[in-house]
Each structure stands twice: as structure tokens, then as C-alpha cells.
Amino acid sequence: MNLALAFASTAQRNPAKTALFWGDASLSYHDLWSQSLWVAERLRAGCGVRRGDRVGIWLRNCPEFVPALFGILQAGAVAVPINNFLKPPEVSFIVADAGINVLIVDETMDEGLSQLAVAQRGLQSLHTESFGADGDTGAAPPCDLSEGDLAVLIYTSGTTGHPKGAMLSHGNLLANVESCRLALEAVGTDRFAVVLPLFHSFMLTVGLLLPMLVGGSMVLIKTLHPPKNVLMEILQHQATLLPAVPQFFRALARGPAPPALPLRVCISGGAPLPGEILREFTARFPIPLLEGYGLSEASPVVSFQPIAGPWKDGSIGRPIADVEVSIQTDAGELLPPGQTGEVCVRGPNVMLGYWRQPAATTETMRDRWLLTGDIGHRDADGYFYITDRKKDMLLVNGINVYPRQIEEVLYQYPGVKEVAVIGVPDARRGEQPLAFIAAHEGARVDKGPLLAFARGQLADYKVPRRVVFMPALPHNATGKVLKTELRKIVRKSVMASPA
Asked: Looking at domain 394-496, which of 3.40.50.300, 3.40.228.10, 3.30.300.30, 3.40.50.2000 is its CATH number?
């Protein structure tokens, strides 16, 4: 079995059923599978794509994302979803690292594509505007990939400033979809409201693969602002499940009072769910808001609060079916309930490794356990809790951001001597990057031009919203910047601010 065959099977069982809603338009399973076959043939015959080649998907959320993904897989290739918020220099690294020769784009990406073409000679593109729907669902030979074959490369932010490609096999993703199906009790009558970017591993699995493989429907939300637009589409298309990040649920809780919604469950993922948001949401809506946990390297879902309960505040729930979670010491010793250590994951959903990075793979995998870098514990009932992060990472709207990459860019600005970036809480986005900067003696660094420089090389959500200038940054005896001291400065500043 592979993902393309699984989708083909669903489409053949439900050819006339609406698979995707897009505003007032809708596409059937026959429509999406026919387009997938068209994409597969165009990639093979028109672009020379062969088995195992990597093909990038650089798209905003749109209906064509679905046939782009399954078309790549049907062609025997590997799909590489690319964050559409990234700037061309960031995308260029991924294209080169993955060895991508073909990018699937739409016309809104043409300017960025032209910049990429300068750096990546020979790069081909396939535009969604040309997608055809004249395929015959019975004409194409079945995809012969196995569960062990590579299906998707998901690029995650790296502590060195460069992202790493998590290698997810067909088997990894099929296993995670089945586990999610059981955890969410998903059936063919379910309609999944998709509000987050489909390049995100959480949405790729829960918002796209799960509904498409169980014979459900996607309600692909056209615009998120204002939040009432989302509610209108949920009502119009009678969506039953809503996976999103905590900040989205906060916006819904604080928005205009809606009529009764058809949602049977809301799923919070991508970032920890603050208790304040949970309380605000549940006070407004009679709908369960259940927290889950995952990471790209685990396809990505690891645990979930059980729908039937009991629900525990602050918990990421229990491991989903076929997934093991343990708390371990740095030496790999298993810790009992109540003791704090690193959260480790094992199961058929765990990645094959990092693309062309055996050393990084070895550092992250130990005796088939995936070392998540998150610190936590479990209670006597088997519920897990995340209490901290080992890695110096922050989460902006549920997307991983590593300070090192931001620091490397800011260091390039004339006059900057030292940079340190930390995450600070933000009510709307979860966290925001805050940059501390020390200039060279006699140099003047202005915030406006500095951030304008950063925006040219970094996705907008990575650009610091605040900059604090200091004569010098605090260091330890070996010269390392003490970010703990910088965090203390932020805390004192917040405490000193008037309420």
C-alpha cells in the first residue's frame, strides 16, 4: 500500500462525492483524482520526473494543493511542501538541499520563482493554472511504491540556521492517518475545516490526508480575516472538525457571537494550548477543544486528549494508537510517572531520518526512540505533560522558529557587533522573536532599516517585532551570550510595566 493507491481507492469508491469545498465552488473525488493523474503524467512526460525525484509544492492554500500532492506521489516521486511565507533565499536552500528540479506553483509565486531561477539553473515549474481534469481514473497504471519508500520531505527549522528535511515514508504517513482516524473517530461523513497552511505537517496529515483517505471532505477556508468569515464557511459547509493553533481559538472566542456551530470537536495543535485560551473558548462554545501533541519527525501526531475523556487541563493527552511515548534521562533510562525528563517517541509514524544528514539523524534517534527535545512528565493515568523545551526554539503561530537563523541574518547588517534572539509571549501569535543587539563602537544601528534588511531575507513571522539595544550583551566565562540573563531583563520589564 502507498498514499497514491489509498487515495485512488477512496476516489473509486466515492467518485461523485464532494471531496473539497472552496467558497461557493466544490470538487468531487473524481475531479481531484483526475487532476492528480494529469499532474503525474505532466511531471513524467513533460518534466522528466522519475521515481524517487523530489518535486516541490510552493503554494498558498488552494484546491490544487491536493492533486499536486497526490500527482507527485502517483508519479513515484517525493513531495516537498515548502512554506509559502519563506522568501526566495530561504526557498533556494531547500530547493538545492532536496535536489528539486520541478516546483509546482501558482501565478502569485512568479516573482519569487524568477528569483529562484537565477540561483537554481534548470529549475522547472508547473503552474496550477494549467492543471487539467481530463484524466481517466481507470487509465493510469497503479503506483507501485511500497510503504518503506520515501513519500514526503518536511523541512523543519534547524539550530544551525538551516532547515533539515524529515524523511517521511508512505508507511509513516499511512500509520499516522490510521491512528488519527481512531483517535478522532473520523468517518466519511466528517468535514474538516482547513484554516492552517497545508505545508504544515499538522495540516498535511490531519487536514488533508485524513479526510481524503477516510472518504470525508475538506472545507478549505478561503480567508481567515475577520474570524467571522471562518465561522460563516463552517456553517455554510457544515464542517464537523476544526484543527487549528491556540491563537486561532483565542480569536474565535473573542470574536462576534456566532450561531450554533455544527462542529463536534476542535483540535488544538502546533503549539501548547494555554489554559486561559481553553477557558475562554469553552466558556463561549459548547464544543470540546482537545489538545494534541506532535512534531514533523513523527508524521506528526503523537498524542491526543481522548474524545471520550477524561480531559486533563494542561495535558497533551495519551499516545495515539500504535505510538509509544516515554520519559527518559539523557542516558536513555526510562523514568517513572511524576519524574521529569525528555519526551521520546517510538512507532511506525517515526521518520526514516533526516535527508542526507546521518549525523543529525544519529543525534535524534536512540534505540529507535525519537528524541523530541521537549521536556515533560507523565502522570499515574498515562497522561503526558510538556513543561519546557531543551532546544532554544520558539513557536510563532504554531510554526517552529529558531533564533540562530534570525541572528545569522542580523549579524550581516553593518554596525552590528552582537545579536541574541529570544522568544517572548504574545497573546495573538503565541510567541514573538525579540532581538537584543550591541553595535560596534562608534557605529549607529537604526531599528527601521535593520528590520527592513531582515524582511528581505526572512519570512515575515521570523522578523523580530521588538529590538532592544544594549552597550554589550551579557556573557559567561567562556564568552557565550547568557540568554537566561536576557530573559530576566524581559521579565523585570514586564513586571515593571503598569497593568
From this structure: 3.30.300.30
